[in-house]
Write a structure and sequence with these properties.
This protein is α/β, with parallel strands linked by helices. It is 44% helix and 16% strand. The strands form three sheets. A six-stranded parallel β-sheet has the order 1-11-10-9-12-13, with helices on both faces. Strands 6-5-4-7-8 form a five-stranded parallel β-sheet, with helices on both faces. Helix 8 runs parallel beside helix 9. The longest helix is centred in the first third of the chain and has 19 residues.
């Protein structure tokens, strides 16, 4: 049963504590990465057989396999995928930014260029659930940014095939290449390249503890989006909230995995008790009831505070991945929300809308990192290059100031490189 905690009557640690995974996979992942670096495709085939129980003839997904998958998906679901993709495109197109240029006196020009990364790598989990939504959310911003190539990796089933809905989503999103490889070995392949899998510049996408650790270890060789922790939801609710709605929304994240965190913060003790009772009614009805039960019992909590103001303070301190405002006039409170990955506004906006359909990205900061990081966006697939242009006349005016600054840092070569041009009578070309 979910814990009910009264703010001010229990320790701050009980209120704000997060359950951290106990598994330590650092050494195992390091060994996998080194094996892939050394042996390339050979290592990937071996790991597919070992971990996925799949004996593959090829790592690449063929055009025929993609067509077969698309044809096998229900036409209704294919249309839903296309609508969701269009919503995601519409939202993310607004994130596209331009460079800038500033022209100053004496012909000085300074500016910034926006350049997409050449190759983006997308990890799509397999295992207990298929996530075509992740394909759309992570590949469409890369395409909008202008990446030349989007490469997807995802683990195969025992039959050596990729889940058809994953391939259908990749087709709709315009993914360029797809490979049947998962786990830490897939991250290593994207980071270093193999005979089949191209090396990429940035790796995005969620995964298990092995995938997260692999992303940590290859960071620097490539860029990554974030280290994603377990799924989280925090619901802010008042006495008018329907307890069945709040319970259903808590379970929408609890069913992800046993480490998921579902938290309700409210100013109503009556609602807290009603939601707890409702959870007990709904959990046995879920297809993933065992996972949801474990998540709610171990990581779930209901926090009762005296006022909505205190409720919002608690939410900001937790900085959840997903935040629901089950309140009337939710926009009245939006400016008070400082730390959250994605906010769902009002009594008729469940978090599940954002997972699949509405357009804002569902790859979000977890584990409190919403205090300093952001949802996946077009910005994740660009880099910025700055430039400066000075005429001789402009340099003459500042050369000795620059040299003075350099000498204060003890860098005399820096100083000389500025003044040598100022004393040189050679005309600018």
């Amino acid at each position: 049963m979910i814990k009910i905690l009264k703010f001010g009557e229990v320790s701050a640690n009980d209120i704000f504590a997060r359950t951290e995974p106990a598994v330590n996979v650092e050494a195992v992942v390091s060994e996998i990465i080194e094996n892939v670096k050394k042996n390339g495709d050979k290592a990937l085939f071996e790991y597919s057989e070992k971990f996925d129980k799949a004996r593959l003839d090829s790592l690449a997904v063929s055009e025929e396999e993609i067509k077969e998958a698309v044809d096998s998906v229900e036409p209704e679901f294919l249309e839903i995928l296309k609508t969701a993709a269009e919503n995601i495109r519409e939202y993310h197109k607004n994130q596209v930014r331009s460079g800038f240029e500033i022209k100053k006196a004496d012909g000085v020009i300074i500016g910034q260029k926006i350049i997409p990364v050449d190759k983006a790598g997308l990890y799509v989990p397999g295992g207990t659930a298929a996530y075509p939504s992740t394909v759309l959310m992570d590949s469409i911003p890369a395409k909008i940014a202008g990446c030349k190539e989007v490469v997807m990796v995802t683990p195969p089933s025992k039959n050596g095939k990729v889940n058809p809905v994953i391939l259908a989503a990749a087709f709709v999103a315009g993914v360029d290449k797809i490979f049947k490889v998962g786990g830490a070995q897939a991250i290593a392949a994207l980071a270093y390249g193999t005979e089949s899998v191209p090396k990429v510049d940035k790796i995005v996408g969620p995964g298990n503890a092995f995938v997260a650790e692999a992303k940590k270890q290859v960071f620097g060789q490539v860029s990554i989006d974030m280290i994603a922790g377990p799924s989280e939801i925090l619901i802010i609710a008042d006495e008018k909230t329907n307890p069945a709605h709040a319970a259903a929304d808590l379970l929408s994240q609890a069913e992800h995995d046993k480490m998921a965190s579902a938290v309700l913060v409210t100013n109503s003790e009556e609602l807290a008790l009603a939601v707890s009772e409702e959870l007990e009614k709904q959990i046995p009805l879920l297809s993933r009831s065992e996972i949801a039960r474990c998540s709610i019992d171990n990581n779930g909590k209901i926090i009762v505070a005296d006022s909505l103001e205190k409720v919002i303070e608690i939410s900001n301190e937790i900085a959840p991945e997903h935040l629901e405002l089950l309140l009337d006039e939710p926009f009245k409170y939006l400016d008070l929300i400082r730390h959250a990955g994605s906010v769902f506004m009002g009594r008729f906006c469940p978090e599940a809308l954002g997972d699949y359909y509405t357009g804002p990205n569902h790859t979000l900061p977890t584990s409190g990192t919403a205090k300093f990081s952001s949802p996946l966006s077009v910005d994740d697939f660009i880099k910025k290059t700055q430039y400066t242009y000075y005429t001789k006349e402009a340099l003459d005016k500042v050369a000795y100031d620059v040299a003075y600054f350099a000498e204060k840092e003890g860098l005399t070569a820096h100083a000389k490189s500025a003044v040598i041009r100022s004393t040189d009578s050679t005309e600018e070309n």
